[in-house]
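Continuing the batch. This is chain 6 of the set; chains 1 through 5 are on the previous pages. Same settings as before, nothing changed between runs. Recording input and output for traceability.
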Amino acid sequence: MAPEARATRGRRECRICWHVYDPAQGDLVWQVPPGTPFADLPAHWTCPECAATRDQFLELPDDD
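Output for chain 6:
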């Protein structure tokens, strides 16, 4: 898999409200563009649903 494709993988799920951050979609609430890996989110980013901090997110397995 190309590095660009890997950068959009790595979905994370909030363990408080179960919101899923999908790098392929970005985050409209925080105006994070599609293709932004979870590790590259701004330091002040929180869950758009419940305001949980980044350390409250669990890595989800890839779908393939």
